[in-house]
Amino acid sequence: MNNYLIPANSKKSQLILGYFTGLDLGLFLTGCALTILLLMLIKDATTIEMIIILLPALTTGLLVMPVPNYHNVLQFILNVVNYIVNPRRYYWRGWCVKYESSDE
Q: Measured between alpha carbons, how far is 31 from 28 in angstroms, rounded to an integer?
């Protein structure tokens, strides 16, 4: 009969530490590296400057935080960026059997 039962956590085993993709870790490590670089370059920072210095690590940390459906949100953001950077013209034809239009 070939009835297979796929365990609910089968995709989780493909993730790094069970939560992160390679893109997630790359994004977070880039934000942390930028924050560390800024911390080394700017010596006597005020409170506002320190918050600005920590923003790359905090922002990327929030982007990759494992909350429910966060991969869906990350994929949505990537799709929006891809659409803006690489605009295309999409045609909609529908499910008609016969097309009456002559503008083809």
A: 5
With contact defined as beta carbons under 8 Å apart, do 32 and 57 qualify? yes
Q: pLDDT by residue (tens digit) across 9-30?
A: 566 666 666 677 788 888 889 9
Tokens describing residue 38: 């800024």
Contact 61, 40 (CB under 8 A): no
